[in-house]
């Protein structure tokens, strides 16, 4: 028996070996990306690249995996790296405690082939940069659209971004991608109409909507690596 024996039952030995040979990058380790990272790690990929510039604060406690009172103020990449290694000590992991910016985007892909990228970033400009770079360099990528102000985890779908609706973030993304000549891009989006924010303008969240999106992203990547999609 080995840690991935249950995976071999449903995917087969050859596909699990594909996982073990793969390098998956998760950009953004918040309410969505932290769950993606957990699921990808437990699929026993051989390498992971994790990117996030942020630290845990008290507003993360309602939804982000590994957000605990003890971890408040700590770097997200440090905490999630520790968790990943506690599950799979043999994994090769690279962490980047920084933003994704045009001047430095190549650093994430330098000297090591990335097979798949999960984009769980909140910032539109960073998302566009990452998508554009990956598509120009033949790197597979799937992005998460908006999960805030929603209450129905069953409303998530996987589709081309140009077929999305009820998502203000996706609307902005479509405009930017179209301007760059990008004609297709795979995303996870919610069919649910988002609730209106309170007068403060803050975006509401819960534990079960972003986590569901994160797991859906991870499932798509793992199944695609196994050619099951």
Automatic annotation (TrEMBL):
Gene Ontology MF: a single term: tRNA threonylcarbamoyladenosine dehydratase
Database matches in InterPro entries: ThiF/MoeB/HesA, ThiF_NAD_FAD-bd, Ubiquitin-activating_enz
Domain THIF-type NAD/FAD binding fold, first and last residues per copy: 11-180
A Pfam family matched in the record: ThiF
Single Gene Ontology BP annotation: cyclic threonylcarbamoyladenosine biosynthetic process
Superkingdom of this protein's organism: Bacteria
Protein name: tRNA A37 threonylcarbamoyladenosine dehydratase
Organism of provenance: Dethiosulfatibacter aminovorans DSM 17477
């Amino acid at each position: 028996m080995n840690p991935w024996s249950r995976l071999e039952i449903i995917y087969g030995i050859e596909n699990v070996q594909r996982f073990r040979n793969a390098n998956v990058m998760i950009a953004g380790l918040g309410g969505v990306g932290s769950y993606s990272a957990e699921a990808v790690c437990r699929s026993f990929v051989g390498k992971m690249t994790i990117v996030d510039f942020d630290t845990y604060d008290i507003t993360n406690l309602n939804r982000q995996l590994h957000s605990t009172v003890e971890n408040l103020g700590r770097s997200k990449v440090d905490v999630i790296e520790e968790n990943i290694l506690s599950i799979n000590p043999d994994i090769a992991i690279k962490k980047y405690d920084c933003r994704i910016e045009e001047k430095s985007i190549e650093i994430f892909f330098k000297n090591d082939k990335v097979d798949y990228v999960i984009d769980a970033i909140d910032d539109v400009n960073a998302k566009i940069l990452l998508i554009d770079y990956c598509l120009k360099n033949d790197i597979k990528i799937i992005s998460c659209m908006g999960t805030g102000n929603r209450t129905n985890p069953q409303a998530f779908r996987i589709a081309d971004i140009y077929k999305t609706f009820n998502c203000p973030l996706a609307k902005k993304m479509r405009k930017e991608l179209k301007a760059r000549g990008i004609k297709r891009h795979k995303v996870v989006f919610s069919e649910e109409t988002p609730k209106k924010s309170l007068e403060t303008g803050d975006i509401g969240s819960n534990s079960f909507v972003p986590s569901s999106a994160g797991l859906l992203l991870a499932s798509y990547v793992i199944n695609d690596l196994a050619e099951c999609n």
